[in-house]
Amino acid sequence: xxxxxxxxGILVFSLLGLNVLWLAEVCEGGLTxxxxxxxxxxxxxxxxxxxxxxxxxxxxxxxxxxxxxxHVGKGVIVSWVTPDEPGSSTVHYWAENTELKRSAKGxxxxxxxxxxxxxxxxxxxxxxxxxxxxxxxxxxxxNTTRKFWFRTPPSVGPDVPYTFGLxxxxxxxxxxxxxxxxxxxxxxxGQTLLFVGDLSYADAYPFHDNNRWDTWGRFIExxxxxxxxxxxxxxxxxxxxxxxxxGKPFKPYRNRFYVPYRASRSTSPLWYSIxxxxxxxxxxxxxxxxxxxxxxxxxxxxxxxxxxxxxTPWLIVIMHCPFYxxxxxxxxxGESMRVMYEEWFVEYKVDVVxxxxxxxxxxxxxxxxxxxxxxxxxxxxxxxxxxxVYITIGDGGNLEGLVTDMTExxxxxxxxxxxSFGHGTFDIKNRxxxxxxxxxxxxxxxxxxDSLWLHNRxxxxxSEESIIAAV
Length: 471
Ligand SMILES: [Fe+2]
What we know:
The protein is built from six helices and 29 strands. It has about 475 residues and is α+β, with helices and mostly antiparallel strands. The chain has a domain at about 155-195 and about 270-465: Purple Acid Phosphatase, chain A, domain 2 (4-Layer Sandwich), CATH 3.60.21.10. The strands form seven sheets. The protein has an eight-stranded mixed β-sheet with strand order 4-26-22-25-21-20-19-18, with no helix packed on it. β27 and β28 (about 435-440) form a beta hairpin. The protein is globular and about 70 Å long.
């Protein structure tokens, strides 16, 4: 008789003393969660909330955040704001257990948005760091310096374990705070956060009150100053308001959040790529032109063939608007971009596409819908093992609240859906296995409300031992 053990979607059979291991992707087969949550509209935290506290001291640096600063993870961009005067744009940094302090000089800028003038926004790139090393860094001058730290990723390579967090549509409500706290206290311990767009929701206020960009910057500092947040832009970053003279899209976002787009030969910070550990991450812009001949299209067309899966087995795409979502709100908004890019995602075996926009959680089966050519009428998603898994993680907890209305019946391509706030983790074990988990805010920090083992389609497990090592 075989003995069956089941843990996290792994089925283990012990048969006549011989261990036979089956790994099955967890496919609930179209489950709409029956979980009952509090549906009250989320309210923004008041301006005097402790999470928005201005650090003490004259002109003290605030809103400190970091992101990857080059293509491979040896660079970091440090950004911060000084409120009263430009001060210094220099970052002092040193590796743990060393005496040698180095410094890098950045730039400072300000911008105006209608009747708002920003503080002094600093961006400083640090290059040529050692891999897998803890660094301390210091910003500010005089009596108001502030010190933080980060850890660089291991050198890029196929079997480097690495854990990404996933948050989208965060805003600055009490629920946003719960989401960030759950991410911080999740024992899985995300090392870098992939942010799928819609950051501050400052545009919900009259004249897109940019003071709410400042409060948001102070809110996320407790995480974003210590680990890179990888940015992608959503519709709430567009800030296009020509009636009040603000006709340049993405103005606050582009001034506040610098990304290393030139390192991947992109011509815009709205789309770019990075390598980090064993992952290749492509960031796309749902609200920039993506049709044929556009800069984003041409960049992606050249970018996908460059991905060396021997070096980075895991190919992840992040963007704001999902291709597949079975919620009624925002239904089919990603359709035209899907028509343009889905075929490439299948051809290049993208492992997983993370998106936000829809304020809920949803995970798809591996499906594609690329057979349609207008005359053949073949326009239903079909099972396709070359296709990505599509995950909507737009449930960060902003002031617009959850979306709860779903198309019925649940489409077969939708594996699991639930309208609750939460965050995700993508835990790469080695070249062949990664565990995605979704964590609902109402649960304990270690609870996985939904999870899926992803098997790399390029790298099959070499042996039973490698599978056991993975789990
Ligand atoms: Fe959105």
